[in-house]
Amino acid sequence: MPTIKDVAEKAGVTVTTVSRVLNNRGYISEATRKKVYKAMEELNYQPNELARSLFRGKSQLLGLIIPTVAHPFFAELAASIEAYAHAKGYKVLLCNSQLNREKEKEYIEMLKRHQVAGIIMASHTMEVDEFAKVKLPLVTFDRRIGANIPYVSSDNYQGGQLATNLLIDKGCRKIAHVCGNLSLNMLANKRNEAFVDTARERGVEYYTIQTEINVFETKQYELLIRDLFNEHPDLDGIFANSDLMAVSAIKVCSLLKKRIPHDVRIVGYDDTNIASLVLPQITSIRQPIEQMSALAIDLLIRQMNKEQISVDNILPVILHERETT
């Protein structure tokens, strides 16, 4: 494997000159720069990113820990974060935790070893006191874990209100919220709070159906919804906590010969691409993924620069009505 010394010898310059080219430090003539790049190309030399970070005293790497890239919301979130990070001159190391606490810890230690400049945490099984040990600029998604650690979230309570009110306004009188496990301390739980509050205020019958702890185990959605209809065959409205859950609800309704939206109306959440790709197209509460991603990157950079930041960062959601209501 070629070294920086090999590049210097081939280009006919000093190792210091090659280092300056790699790190864009000091004055280097264009002719010298071209010679160094040509030598690197001919030798197939790959600079050591970690060594460069240590030399500059600043890393251009960020860590992103999500539950699973297989979920449409987190896939779109990861793509958006990477795009905004790249625009700011950073690269992203993507980690899938599978909601495994030990795996989250291992990834954080790995990111520290790679000298990342900051971490965006969108998977939350670690205890709050464990986050305090990270000692890096940190932004969390959808969870408030301390007075000094900034978080980014959409307005989950507003989303729950919009979904529930729409179902009732459309004539639903017996509704259910299919959601993640409420024992997890997530801001997304406010969707169910809003669902319950709104249903009570408007005098309709309501039920909350929770998944297992691993909310991203999609096979359970269909079973939960089948059981829901077995117990409540006259159910006429479903508020699903994700677009994937809404897809499962559509499938179950089709199997049970329930017409959408005539017999059952369905509202999803996130408004990922899948909402408009399936038939019938899903009415969904849109989380502003691009704005949330840009804000998360901005909050990390502000922390790196020792600037003042806002801990609470909650963005409004939008209702996109389609064919399921």
Write the layout of secondary structure elements.
Layout: H1 4-11, H2 15-23, H3 30-43, H4 49-56, E1 61-66, H5 72-87, E2 91-96, H6 101-113, E3 118-121, H7 128-131, E4 138-141, E5 151-154, H8 156-169, E6 174-179, H9 189-202, E7 205-210, H10 219-231, E8 237-240, H11 243-255, E9 265-270, H12 274-277, E10 283-286, H13 289-304, E11 312-315, E12 318-320
Parallel strand pairs: 1-2, 1-3, 3-4, 4-5, 5-11, 6-7, 6-8, 8-9, 9-10
Antiparallel strand pairs: 10-12
Protein name: LacI family DNA-binding transcriptional regulator
Organism: Capillibacterium thermochitinicola
Domain HTH cro/C1-type: 3-50
Task: Please give a structural write-up.
The protein is 45% helix and 18% strand. Strand 6 (174-179), helix 9 and strand 7 form a beta-alpha-beta unit. The chain has helices at residues 4-11, 15-23, 30-43, 49-56, 72-87, 101-113, 128-131, 156-169, 189-202, 219-231, 243-255, 274-277, 289-304, and strands at 61-66, 91-96, 118-121, 138-141, 151-154, 174-179, 205-210, 237-240, 265-270, 283-286, 312-315, 318-320. 39% of the residues are buried. The strands form two sheets. The chain has a six-stranded parallel beta sheet, with helices on both faces. Strands 7-6-8-9-10-12 form a six-stranded mixed beta sheet, with helices on both faces. It has 13 helices and twelve strands. The protein has three domains: 4-47, lambda repressor-like DNA-binding domains (434 Repressor (Amino-terminal Domain), Orthogonal Bundle), CATH 1.10.260; 61-154 and 289-317, Rossmann fold (3-Layer(aba) Sandwich); 156-287, Rossmann fold (3-Layer(aba) Sandwich). The chain is α/β, with parallel strands linked by helices and 325 residues long.
